[in-house]
Amino acid sequence: MSSAKRTPMVIPDRLESRFAAGLKSWEMLLIAVALAVFAVNALASPHFLNPWNLSDATFNFTEKAMIAMAMALLIIAGEIDLSVAAIIALASTAMGLALQFGADTPVLVLTGLATGLLCGAFNGLLVSGFALPSIVVTIGTMSLFRGIAYIILGDQAFTGYPSEFAYFGQGYAWWVFSFELALFAAIALAFGILLHATSFGRLVYAIGNNPTGALFSGIRVARVKFILFLLTGLMSGIAAICLTSRLGSTRPSIALGWELEVVTMVVLGGVSILGGSGSILGVVIAAFIMGMVTFGFGLVNVPGIVMSIFIGLLLIAVIAAPILWRRLRGEGFA
Amino acid sequence: MSLIKKIMVAAALSSALSVNSAHAETVKIALVVKALGIGFFEAANKGAQEAAKELGNVEVIYTGPTATTAEAQIETINALIAQNVNAIAVSANDKDALVPALKKAMSRGITVISWDSGVAPAGRQAHLNPSSNALIGNMCVKMAADNLPGGGDVAILSASATATNQNTWIAEMKKVLPNYPGIKIVATVYGDDLADKSYRETQGLIQSQPGLKAIIAPTSVGIVAAAQAVKDAGKIGTINVTGLGLPSEMAAHVKSGASKSFAIWNPIDLGYSATMIAYNLAAKKAEAKPGAEIPIGRMGKVKLDENNEGAMADPFVYDASNVEQFAKIF
Questions:
Q1: Model pTM?
Q2: Residue B100 contacts A, CB cutoff 8 Å
Q3: In chain A, which residue ranges form alpha helices assigned H by DSSP?
């Protein structure tokens, strides 16, 4: 009707504070931190810039980062899954059981994926079907899934995985780029597109910002949440395949405590723990930062506890900085 | 741009430095433990540092994860591979899960041995056990016999009847009995590694064996319970409790006299010997193959069996003279 050029309307997920605006974006800040970590490591150890060493270092985070991709979507939608490490344990145990019945590599992979999906479906059913809080449900299933693994294995271990199976956690796609790193890149790309370029992604943000509003807008909130739990379970299954292959064995204590590291990655990546905002790029950079810091500290033989303190401080800084900034500017509480 | 340049300069500079240090021919040996902050391993590090001092051109890197998980230990191992250490001596959190990471270390020319808690044979060149079944069995009988110059009745308080370790040690004890004339094993009872059951079984022994002079408990739970039962029955001085125990748990019973002596491995010697083996293999002064004898400094030699496993020495004996000092360690 009019000749005036129409500009597409953009509704921000979260109104930008001056702090965030000043830094352009969270991702810019993370990239700066990543570069700083890289530079400090390179100066601290002569071995850091060796491509093979850097390649080894990526194994510190690739499996956790795969789960972090799905976890980011879940947290943006206002939910959380604390059972991911337990899903790894159960999926790995299921693969070990399949191995005892003579399964070959394709069957092992299918077993891992199917177990992950089943666990995710179970979580999803409890949360969306019965409208239970996800933090309570997944703390429960965290004990349940790992408990089953302990019942099956006790203090024993499954070993003797076929040599082709070792490729997933120990093989290289091209030159120094491991299969795990390549797989992670593909997964990150897929989740980036899903969250930032599809209508499904918009639904995830909408639900996280205002679940009731989303429901009354005709969004099938329960279904979207179920799918997100399914995806998280699937990613945990994939991580279980990679980790089992990398360790060449299964023990029920596998991946113990990883759920907190995955959540740390997501929050460090700028995803609001209250839901509604965040980006895949941020989480990817956060994963690299955590992996490189661990490796860099290891290279100069700094004990692991210092690393935990560092990540803890980083996390507090990341969450507290914008809030403190607003208060200092006299803008009151958020 | 300038940042990248700086990094490149730093890298070039530090690689030049590393070339220099290679000229000095320092042998870098990493002592990887199950987790940092455990008294037993801190003591092992003390022994490793002692070995490094004795050897002169050795740098010991004492490291390990914060939690006793295989995944965290693999991260530590990856960082050590990247540093081009000459040898890794590891006490494993998981005998199987570490194998791929340690195989990679070996493929890059790093000497890998395990000690204390072993790695499956595919993941290491040699494994150092603190002692052997035969040495443990012999030491248990010897400690009882040393305090019984005229001989006497001895009973065994074991863990469960199906415990492989304990049964092997008891068989070894019976094998060496002819070497200790006058010593007679009159009963074997099972406390299932439960404090209360071990206590009751000991009470039963005291009742049923009036001539009992010593109790051998080759289990750290049993020995404490037995010492307590002997003390409570007022039999200190009549019945001597010995066997395998931890200094921190046994110090009080040695002080009361319920136990004159007991044995367990010495973590300082273990760290010392592991470092010596790692050094000798990395410096090509010895070869890890079945039947090989590897010198371990003041501890003598260790002979490898068909699985490339060796036993360090007799279990270390703790008595009133040294138990207080070690009770602080483990």
A1: 0.80
A2: yes
A3: 18-22, 26-44, 51-58, 62-76, 84-100, 105-124, 134-153, 167-170, 179-196, 199-209, 211-216, 221-247, 258-268, 280-299, 304-328
